[in-house]
Design goal:
heterodimer, A: 279 residues, alpha/beta, Rossmann fold, seven-stranded mixed β-sheet, 12 helices, 44% helix, B: 474 residues, TIM Barrel, 2 domains, 16 strands
Amino acid sequence: MSVDERSGPTTLPALDELLSEDDLKACCAAVYAHPAVRWLLGDELHPGGEATTRRALELIGVRAGERVLDVASGTGTSALLAAREFGCSVVGIEYGEGAVQAATAAARDQGLGELVSFRRGDAEAVPFGDDEFDAVLCECSLCTFPDKRLAVAEMRRVLKPGGRVALCDVVVERERLPAGLDGALATIACVGEALSRQGYEDLLDGAGLRVTAVESRAADAAVLARRVEDRLRGVRILGLDMGAGSPLTTDEAIELVRSAQRAIADGALGYVIFAARST
Amino acid sequence: MPDAVADGARLARTQSICPRCRRLLDAELLARGAKVVLTRTCPEHGGFEAIVYGNASRYLEIQRFNKPGEQPLERQTEVERGCPHDCGICPEHAQHTCLGIIEVNTACNLDCPICFADSGTGPQEHGYSLTLEQVESMLDGFVRAEGEPESVQLSGGEPSIHPQILEMLAAAKARGIKLVMLNTNGIRLARDPRFAPALAELGVHVYLQFDGFDEATQVAIRGKPLTEEKLRALDRCADAGVSVSLAAAVERGLNEHEIGPILRFGVEHPAVTGVFLQPVTHSGRFRVDSDPLDKLTNSDVIDAIAAQLPDWFRTDDFVPVPCCSPTCRSATFALYDGRDLVPLPRLVDVEQYLDYVTNRAVPDLEVREALEGLWSAKAAGGSGPVAERLECIACATAMPSELREVAARGFMVVVQDFQDPYTLDVQKLRKCCVSEITPDGRLIPFCAYNSVGYREHVREAMSQANGARLAVRR
């Protein structure tokens, strides 16, 4: 069943059905396309929204006419920004077919169909040849990939020599993380499988990508977490059913996000932009 | 948000009046000690200063919530002496009227020390009581000026003791005005069991003075303890199905600490659909000797709300109403389920729609229109038009359909500052959208009416014109 078929404006797919899928990548993609989740998070599915994307692209200095790959492009917001504001020619790959269609429609609506295209693709087997891109953008998604080493190696493979990577992701200091912020749900909330700051740097370095800048966006993460908490409280007040057999009650979801907020305040959880260059 | 504003920085030039002789003076708004001070010098009476907003950086930040003014259909006066001395509405006024107020009498059944209308129970100099015909002709004038006015408030004095108050309210309803409010102290509601059902039948919304629960508060503001009667009035409204906004006069050092308890009580009470928090106006007879540099303003009230109810409100939940000046009125709507409360701006990006200065694309003009109707002086929680607009927003922002009906029950919280002769800022006054409707058919911006001398003139003219017909003593 495609995401589109089950995500009308009022019928919500059961989250537990999604979570029990064997394929975690499909599950992640489907959860982020869930209308209730999208309403909760707003259109900005990562901390800082467009401001973070803009900053990441600035840190790697993308220029007009450069060819950029957006890995896990979702509904296309970042790819469209790179084209609109920086004049880049962008290809987005995304695991969820529904999101690819939505992103393609958005590019057409914004008159950016010439500069931006989207296709279904796996970050661990990028459907492009070697040395094709000037830059790679990967926002808030590497943390959910089961084989991160392979995904980063793929970024390096498709980059031209001297090409740049902007990686924006959740960082955790796992030994300081409160109990409960793990498991499949936490993975979807980009926490369970996230690395430490050093972990990402080592990962990039190991793939031949030299880190050129690291910038914390913890304040944006705190704002996003607070917004999710507010909206979950709104959902509870309004009595919205998140779907029969949802794996978490709304109360539990609120507790989870509060726990995440405490972890952000303590520095155990954060959001960071890494800029790197292919050596 | 701007950083700390430099002490002494000039934020704007405007005009004001001398609080003694009321002459028009050039004035400046300055940042001082992180607050905003209005300052001017009268050649005869010297310099005057007053706090007009308690937070200078927020003052600058909220200027973007300023919607271009709209024209009324009809203006009643010419420009002769210059603002604020030609009110009525004159061609220099930059806004139409969202809310019209008719003061049907000057008599009252209380003697509140704070009364800006200088009403009371005793014999009154220049007291008056309007006839039904006068009120009808004033309503007709309001309809001519506005076309389809949405809100009117009958006030006083104490309007509920006017023998024809029900006919007057019915006359407003008969003119298609959707939100007809009765501004009352609640004493008649408490004592007369037939009154609330009569209001329910007319579909009138009650705007009930409710300043807190402490006896000290009530004695200082209203002259005697009234909690028992207020509670009985509210219960009668609940039984009859009358919706009520609580209106609290908030005075520094007196009842600021009651803001949280009033809001908690309000969201729980079945009749209450909103709370209006109003820093006390130092017009009329209250504390005329009080220090204008120690006045409570909207930002102070908003800070007090956030400090007293931190689990429910943050300061940025209160978005300035853009039809008047952004420092006049800030509001929010809250969803409440008996346990938790979430303000609507956390679920819908209200600022994105009501910011008229920052160059941002408005995603949906229908949503903006609905939000403009909610963040307006014409709105009161629980009223039909407000419920319709909340439902529109729920729908247009893709809120799942099950939630829309609940969203329509949003609880309104308003923080509303009025100007007095010390704080009067003519630029701000030009955009005022709350008007006193006078018996001679003028629409006088509320703060001008109370600060510039119009109230006194109207009273004098009324008492002379109506002579023996006036019920000076009830």
